[in-house]
């Protein structure tokens, strides 16, 4: 197990380097110039711009900039945001807790509602409940989250007056609930469908017949035999989905004016702030890689047939 | 990573690849009358599936709208030029079916209905182009990776991991931000460059399963060349799960384009529902219909492709029902 | 838990003083509603099993042998399955009239089943010790620890080497033969009155088949259980069974004590099955094979279901369903336990 983790961590390095390099290249191949953009329309002395560029190492060749960036990462140095002249790490760490909160609420909602709906319809495959859940999930997947966001805003804030259209305090859990539900909707639908499929499939498995033949009570058959097996693919999906939720937050945060990573990345992109965008993607990729590792370890715990390879 | 990371995909592929003999394997099954193949069985299923019939009808209608949008509106109405003085946020006239004023006018005095019709082409084109590009690229990578194994697989899988690691939407935003003119092919290719990985993984898993089948061994033993084995024996048998994943993803690509257009980094040269929704959000309090109609149109389109993909999946993989 | 008390009160006294057959299946009909129509899987099956007796049910796949067993066990998928007619008397009590909870109490404890494919029939994510121990925990209320001790004991009984060390292993870590032993241990755990073994050795290597069959027969003798052995393999049957019922298209076509069936089959189908076994003394000759395919259960041929494949079919075979005639010897004396559902059983047994 220890060796497996070590090997996986080693394997992550090339993936991590590849991913960040890709984003780095895409970002800095941009025609725009963040330093020049600082001054807007006013004319600036080119030597002044050159001085700022030299200060941040932006005058060096691209490969050297990337090496410097990688070298700084272990010390938590993500570079400097040019507009505010603040360290990117600081900017990210301010916005990050908000997005994490939003993601956690959305994740919990996804698990609770998605899995319950999936179980409900999987156990009644082909019946009315099943069709109902199918229609609901189809609707949730077809309506893009930004549309759903406005729909909720209009319904719950403007018509019913239950809440404010946008979030006033981005650290307040109850205010984050509506955006979290919107963020969760897509994942929730997928989780419900996956759970349903998994349950319906396992219900037909030979070992379920054996469990019945053993004279086990229905409750035990479902909780011990059916659920243990059906939840394996769901857990895997949920793990990978954390990354999707965090990216999805970019759109949701914009709609509800939540001051998180999404807003930050959106602003940084429109200002062509390479360092900030690369920094955020770096953090996202790291989270993705670690969640993946944890999911794989969990998978091996849940399914004894999987060996650490 | 490949050993564990790809096991779910492999499982999915294995399921879809071995469904025919699983329909009624018990003693209870009717004795084999006419032999049924995976594809003919799937076709039987599809013809009797209301979701398939409904979605096919919708998709055909959408395709006609995309090809000749003006066919569905009476009079010569431009979707781009509005008359602010006459039509600024003019309310819908729901009785005037198929007319320019049917669904009202937007904040620039443009007919919302005309814009709905003219936005169809870009949405569907992006969805189809991304799907085709992703299937070709991902399919090829997965086929090579799965068939040859060894170091080829290692390198290809690592490259796949790199692209898979980039969050799809975020990556698309970064890529598209580099272009100032974003046409349909530009947006489609950008999405495809980021989206091919899941197809590659499914294809790889599917190919690995099929590769071990006896008929492939038999073909090899009979001296068939690599090309023949790949395209005559492996590809036709490994392609079902890929088709399923690709069809279902199509709707997702349409959503992605709309989301990017909504964020202002999508299409620049076409009418896009995403842009119209973005414009409509400012009038959510006073004129909901500006946002509502393009949103409904977008959702309906995605729904049609989603139901289509679902029906295909159910037909090709009866176990998932 | 009043249900438990009630069932026990109903079942236990009868267990002592009931002297009829342990199990009696009467005129059982099972059908499946499928996309292609109604498949008539079982069409009026009758058989009995006594305590300590082994009944072999023989037939091709689709003959209804497994469906009958599943109906006895109460594990038929309903829907699409439906028991349209018949009784299943277990110690004089009709199982089909019991409530689901009463049947559950009988399953595993009084009637147990061994399945063909032990790998898929055992739960892949639970240890074999847990799955075995579950029987004791659920039916006897043992603690987790005691149940595990019992599980090890059972694994020893079925001769699994190093049982104590392997009790926490998972099904995929055992060989096919060992897995089937675990299935047997699970079925025997509560010393049931009746065991139904559905092709217990089909999935195993030939060398292992004999070992598993011997073990099953030995334990059956020891516990004096009734055994229904479902198989399509005539070779397996000869050594262990007392009597044989041959099924075709959901009906019993011939019934006989095991050795008499081999000696003088009274139904062309049985004869065909026996002739298709390769024999050393006929080396070099072409092997006999029954022509044609088993019938489609949604469209069973009229008359005798076997008539399209029968080498001796006459006009009457295409119109009249043959009843299960008692079979007599050539001199007219009754042959105990023999019956054949063939219009021409006399010609068959003598020719």
Automatic annotation (TrEMBL), chain A:
Membrane topology qualifier: Multi-pass membrane protein
Keyword hit for Transport: yes
Annotated InterPro entries: BPD_transp_1_N, MetI-like, MetI-like_sf
Keywords linked to the UniProt accession: Cell membrane, Membrane, Transmembrane, Transmembrane helix, Transport
Membrane-spanning intervals of the chain: 12-30, 100-120, 132-156, 176-194, 234-256, 276-302
Entries under Gene3D superfamilies matching the protein: MetI-like
Location in the cell: Cell membrane
SUPFAM superfamilies referenced in this protein's UniProt entry, alphabetically: MetI-like
ABC transmembrane type-1 domain: residues covered: 96-299
Repeat is among the record's keywords: no
Family named by the database record: Belongs to the binding-protein-dependent transport system permease family.
Name the record gives this protein: ABC transporter permease
Organism: Streptomyces composti
TrEMBL record, chain B:
Keywords, ordered alphabetically: Cell membrane, Membrane, Transmembrane, Transmembrane helix, Transport
Primary location recorded for the protein, binned into one broad class: membrane
Localization per Swiss-Prot or TrEMBL: Cell membrane
Membrane topology (UniProt): Multi-pass membrane protein
InterPro entries: BP-dependent_transpt_permease, MetI-like, MetI-like_sf, OppC_N
Transmembrane segments: 50-73, 124-150, 162-180, 186-203, 238-267, 287-312
Residue span(s) of domain ABC transmembrane type-1: 120-309
Domain of life: Bacteria
Signal sequence residues: none
Similarity comment: family membership: Belongs to the binding-protein-dependent transport system permease family.
Name this protein carries in UniProt: ABC transporter permease
Native organism: Streptomyces composti
Automatic annotation (TrEMBL), chain C:
One Pfam family it belongs to: ABC_tran
SMART domains: AAA
Membrane topology summary: Peripheral membrane protein
A GO molecular function held by the record: ATP binding
Main location: membrane
Location of this chain's protein in the cell: Cell membrane
Record keyword Transport present: yes
Record key words, sorted: ATP-binding, Cell membrane, Membrane, Nucleotide-binding, Transport
Family matches, as Gene3D superfamilies: P-loop containing nucleotide triphosphate hydrolases
Residues forming coiled coils: none
Every ABC transporter domain range: 23-274
PROSITE patterns per the UniProt record, alphabetical: ABC_TRANSPORTER_1 (PS00211), ABC_TRANSPORTER_2 (PS50893)
Family, similarity comment: Belongs to the ABC transporter superfamily.
NCBIfam families: oligo_HPY
Protein name as it appears in the record: ABC transporter ATP-binding protein
């Amino acid at each position: 197990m220890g060796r497996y983790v070590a090997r996986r961590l080693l394997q992550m390095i090339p993936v991590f380097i590849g991913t960040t390099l890709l984003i780095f290249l895409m970002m800095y191949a941009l025609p725009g110039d963040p330093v020049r953009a600082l001054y807007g329309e006013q004319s600036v002395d080119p030597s002044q711009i050159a001085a700022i560029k030299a200060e941040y190492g932006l005058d060096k060749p691209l490969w050297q900039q990337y090496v410097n960036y990688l070298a700084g990462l272990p010390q938590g140095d993500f570079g400097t945001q040019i507009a505010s002249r603040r360290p990117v790490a600081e900017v990210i760490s301010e916005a990050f807790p908000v997005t994490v909160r939003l993601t956690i609420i959305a994740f919990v909602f996804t698990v609770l509602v998605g899995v319950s709906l999936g179980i409900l319809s999987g156990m009644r495959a082909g019946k009315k409940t099943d069709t109902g859940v199918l229609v609901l999930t189809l609707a949730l997947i077809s309506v893009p989250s930004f549309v759903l966001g406005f729909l909720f805003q209009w319904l719950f804030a403007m018509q019913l007056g239950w809440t404010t259209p946008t979030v006033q305090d981005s650290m307040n859990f109850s205010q984050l609930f509506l955006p979290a539900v919107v963020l969760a909707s897509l994942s929730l639908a997928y989780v419900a469908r996956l759970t349903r499929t998994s349950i319906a499939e396992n219900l037909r498995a030979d070992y379920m017949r054996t469990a019945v033949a053993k004279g086990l009570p229905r409750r035990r058959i479902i909780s011990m035999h059916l659920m243990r097996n059906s939840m394996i693919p769901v857990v895997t999906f949920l793990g990978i989905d954390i990354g999707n939720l965090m990216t999805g937050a970019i759109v949701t945060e914009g709609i509800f004016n939540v001051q998180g990573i999404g807003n930050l990345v959106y602003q940084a992109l429109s200002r062509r702030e390479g360092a900030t965008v690369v920094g955020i993607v770096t953090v996202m990729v790291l989270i993705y890689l670690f969640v993946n590792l944890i999911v794989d370890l969990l998978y091996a715990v849940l399914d004894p047939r999987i060996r650490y390879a | 990573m490949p050993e564990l990371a790809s096991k779910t995909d492999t499982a999915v592929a294995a399921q879809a690849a071995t469904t025919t003999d699983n329909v009624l394997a018990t003693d209870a099954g009717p004795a084999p009358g006419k032999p049924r193949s995976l594809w003919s069985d799937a076709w039987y299923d599809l013809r009797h599936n209301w979701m398939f019939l409904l979605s096919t009808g919708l998709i055909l209608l959408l395709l006609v709208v995309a090809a000749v949008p003006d066919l569905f509106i009476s009079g010569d109405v431009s979707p781009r030029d509005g008359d602010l003085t006459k039509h600024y946020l003019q309310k819908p006239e729901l009785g005037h079916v198929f007319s320019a004023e049917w669904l009202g006018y937007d904040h620039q005095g443009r007919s919302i209905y005309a814009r709905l019709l003219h936005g169809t082409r870009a949405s569907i084109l992006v969805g189809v182009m991304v799907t085709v590009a992703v299937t070709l690229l991902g399919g090829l990578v997965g086929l090579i990776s799965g068939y040859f194994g060894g170091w080829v697989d290692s390198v290809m899988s690592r490259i796949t991991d790199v692209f898979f690691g980039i969050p799809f939407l975020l990556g698309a935003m970064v890529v598209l931000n580099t272009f100032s003119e974003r046409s349909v092919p530009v947006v489609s290719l950008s999405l495809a460059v980021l989206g091919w990985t899941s197809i590659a993984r499914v294809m790889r898993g599917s190919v690995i399963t099929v590769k071990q089948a006896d008929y492939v061994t038999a073909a090899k033993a009979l001296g068939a060349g690599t090309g023949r084995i790949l395209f005559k024996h492996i590809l036709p048998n490994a392609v079902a799960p890929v088709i399923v994943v690709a069809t279902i993803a199509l709707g997702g690509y349409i959503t992605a384009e709309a989301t990017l257009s909504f964020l202002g980094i999508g299409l620049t040269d076409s009418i896009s529902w995403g842009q119209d929704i973005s414009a409509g959000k400012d009038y959510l309090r006073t004129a909901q219909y500006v946002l509502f109609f393009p949103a409904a149109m977008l959702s309906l389109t995605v729904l049609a492709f989603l139901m289509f993909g679902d029906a295909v999946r159910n037909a090709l993989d009866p176990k998932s029902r | 838990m009043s249900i438990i008390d009630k069932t026990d009160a109903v079942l236990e006294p009868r267990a002592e003083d009931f002297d009829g057959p342990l199990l009696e299946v009467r005129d059982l009909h099972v059908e499946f509603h499928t996309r292609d129509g109604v498949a008539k899987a079982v069409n009026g099956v009758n058989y009995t099993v006594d305590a300590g007796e082994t009944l072999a049910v023989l037939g091709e796949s689709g003959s209804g042998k497994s469906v009958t067993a599943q109906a006895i066990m109460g594990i038929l998928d309903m829907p699409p399955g439906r028991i349209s007619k018949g009784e299943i008397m277990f110690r004089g009590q009709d199982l089909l009239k019991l409530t689901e909870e009463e049947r559950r109490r009988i399953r595993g404890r009084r009637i147990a089943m061994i399945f063909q494919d032990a790998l898929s029939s055992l739960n892949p994510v639970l240890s074999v010790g847990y799955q075995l121990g579950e029987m004791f925990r659920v039916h006897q209320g043992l603690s987790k620890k005691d149940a595990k001790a019992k599980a090890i004991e059972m694994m020893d009984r079925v001769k699994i080497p190093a049982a104590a060390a392997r009790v926490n292993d998972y099904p995929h870590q055992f060989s096919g033969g060992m897995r089937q032993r675990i299935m047997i241990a699970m079925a025997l755990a509560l010393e049931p009155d009746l065991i139904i073994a559905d092709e217990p050795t089909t999935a195993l290597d030939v060398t292992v088949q004999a070992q598993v069959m011997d073990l099953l027969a030995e334990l059956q003798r020891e516990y004096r259980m009734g055994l229904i052995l479902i198989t399509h393999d005539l070779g397996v049957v000869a050594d262990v069974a007392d009597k044989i019922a041959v099924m075709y298209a959901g009906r019993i076509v011939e019934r006989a004590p095991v050795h008499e069936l081999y000696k003088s089959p009274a139904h062309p189908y049985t004869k065909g099955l026996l002739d298709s076994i390769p024999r050393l003394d006929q080396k070099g000759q072409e092997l006999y094979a029954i022509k044609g395919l088993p019938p489609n259960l949604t469209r069973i041929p009229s008359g005798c279901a076997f008539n399209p494949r029968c080498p001796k079919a006459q006009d009457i075979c295409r119109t009249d369903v043959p009843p299960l005639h008692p079979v007599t010897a050539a001199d007219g004396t009754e042959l105990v336990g023999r019956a054949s559902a063939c219009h021409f059983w006399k010609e068959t047994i003598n020719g």
